[in-house]
């Protein structure tokens, strides 16, 4: 058994019976247990990441370029997993160094593979493209310091420049082959990190927006946010934060944005840590001929201790504007993780001074801290919180505060990661660690268990199906409509897998009507048998599940 680098034999000791469990559990079982431990005891996360780094170092994963040059598809897949572990455990630049080699080898495999393997190889390269996006997010995280963000060191700059040059090499390798360059998103985010313009290529030309594109269809239902009239469904881009939701090529994503705005879904929600969401959205918007009809809602999130200063806050706004290619941000939503540090008030005041921020919103603020912000004199337009049939905590305290201060809620989690849908009616309890289950579904399955369990959830779905049949819509429409019917809710944010799936027609069916008293009574009959009241006591007010 390996001994940790600090030389302590205690850290190497595992009870022999426990070791027998570890040795014999299937890998999927170990993953379930590790996730459960980290969720229940978040204080061990740092130790887990440190142990991961030590394992990767001892396993000598930093292989030479010649070793990567001979990898087959299976070997590439294994090396990709190592790179992902590095990105997730605070070794972003080491992960980038591996990806630098994998992208070239991936293209070589694509060129040499028989036609029968085209689909599987294309999927692998698309996932690598998603990893490149994740890598730049991980690098950005490592640049965070207490005063905001530091610049790349010369060594870091060289590593990322090397990746960019490898991507350019891949473009050259594919010229005239008929194979579409698979790393468009990765190249765009890498160029953005280096402050470079994206070189012209067939892929970038595919990602153009026609200059004669028609104006968006009028929204079927709107609400007022200050002087702005907005649709009541926002498209959420959090699924672009990780390849766990799948990966699409840049041209497919640009086309996905086109579909959304063409159908009247012109408001988009994103964040500084949602992978390349800001960059790709900004690219689309910059080319869209009716950009003034779009609404940009992004976030400034402070997850770790920082020393707030005007310069640090302004630097974050500058980064948002740069990535979005906008001089003014329509709505900048502020998340502050650590309530014991009251500097969030100072940060919000600095945002209020910045003319590049048209409107300020909050994200995952509870009622107490929202009230403190309002008392400070900062004008707040929105608060983004979790709100659904399963998690109705906003009705307890937040509703009153929003009504008093004219603040609108932007809600997420309304469909519980897709569980509140016809496809889950009459289905057995899911294995949340199945490869087909998304990170969101793992999270919201836990919410369903806290709310009342899978059997009661099935009763709820059955009632929603009855109501949906009456209104000739689907279960998700009813769940969304239930939230929208609260007067303090401005819009529901529905996650969009831009470029991979398209649900604008289904989403539009939610709008332009209301649930009647009989509908609400049927729903309440189920909710009254749930533990929704206890959830407020055990989880706390809005947003406190993250703290």
TrEMBL record:
Top-level taxon of origin: Eukaryota
Keywords: Oxidoreductase
A molecular function GO annotation: oxidoreductase activity
Record SUPFAM superfamilies: NAD(P)-linked oxidoreductase
Annotated signal peptide: none
Transmembrane regions: none
Record-given protein name: NADP-dependent oxidoreductase domain-containing protein
């Amino acid at each position: 058994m390996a001994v940790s680098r600090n030389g302590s034999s205690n850290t190497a000791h595992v009870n022999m019976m426990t070791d027998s469990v570890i040795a014999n559990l299937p890998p999927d079982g170990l993953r379930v247990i590790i996730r459960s431990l980290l969720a229940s005891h978040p204080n061990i996360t740092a130790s887990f990441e440190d142990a991961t780094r030590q394992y990767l170092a001892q396993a000598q994963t930093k292989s030479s370029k010649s070793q990567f040059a001979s990898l087959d598809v299976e070997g590439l897949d294994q090396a990709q997993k190592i790179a992902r572990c590095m990105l997730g455990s605070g070794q972003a630049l080491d992960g980038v160094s591996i990806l630098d080699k994998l992208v070239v080898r991936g293209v070589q495999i694509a060129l040499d593979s028989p036609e029968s393997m085209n689909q599987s190889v294309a999927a692998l390269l698309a996932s690598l493209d998603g990893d490149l996006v994740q890598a730049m997010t991980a690098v950005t995280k490592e640049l965070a310091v207490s005063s905001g963000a530091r610049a790349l060191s010369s060594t870091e700059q060289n590593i990322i420049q090397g990746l960019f040059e490898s991507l350019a090499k891949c473009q050259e390798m594919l010229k005239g082959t008929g194979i579409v360059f698979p790393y468009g998103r990765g190249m765009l985010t890498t160029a953005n990190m280096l402050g470079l313009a994206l070189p012209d290529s067939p892929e970038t030309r595919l990602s153009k927006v026609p200059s004669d594109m028609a104006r968006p269809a009028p929204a079927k239902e709107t609400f007022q946010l200050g002087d702005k009239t907005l649709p009541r469904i926002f498209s959420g881009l959090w699924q672009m934060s990780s390849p766990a939701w799948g990966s699409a090529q840049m041209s497919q994503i640009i086309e996905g944005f086109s579909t959304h705005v063409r159908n009247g879904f012109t408001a988009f929600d994103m964040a500084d840590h949602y992978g390349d969401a800001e960059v790709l959205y900004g690219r689309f918007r910059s080319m869209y001929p009716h950009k003034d009809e779009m609404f940009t809602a992004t976030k400034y999130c402070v997850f770790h201790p920082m020393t707030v200063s005007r310069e640090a806050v302004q630097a974050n706004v500058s980064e948002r504007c740069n990535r979005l290619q906008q001089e003014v941000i329509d709505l900048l939503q502020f998340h502050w993780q650590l309530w014991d540090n009251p500097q969030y008030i100072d940060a919000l005041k600095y945002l209020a001074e910045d003319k590049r921020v048209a409107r300020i919103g909050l994200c995952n603020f509870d009622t107490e801290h929202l009230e403190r912000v309002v008392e400070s004199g900062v004008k707040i337009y929105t608060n983004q919180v979790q709100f659904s049939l399963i998690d109705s905590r906003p009705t307890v305290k937040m509703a009153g505060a929003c009504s008093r201060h004219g603040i609108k809620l932007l809600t997420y989690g309304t469909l519980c990661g897709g569980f509140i849908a016809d496809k889950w009616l009459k289905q057995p309890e899911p294995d949340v660690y199945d490869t087909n289950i998304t990170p969101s579904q793992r999270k919201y399955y836990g919410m369903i268990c806290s709310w009342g369990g899978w059997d009661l959830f099935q009763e709820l779905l059955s009632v929603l199906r009855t109501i949906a049949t009456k209104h000739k819509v689907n279960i998700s429409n009813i769940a969304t409509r239930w939230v929208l019917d609260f007067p303090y809710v401005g819009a529901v944010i529905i996650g969009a897998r831009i470029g991979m799936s398209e649900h604008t027609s289904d989403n539009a069916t939610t709008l332009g009507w209301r649930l009647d008293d009989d509908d609400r009574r049927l729903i309440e009959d189920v909710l009254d048998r749930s533990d929704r009241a206890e959830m407020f006591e055990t989880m706390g007010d809005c947003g406190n599940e993250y703290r």
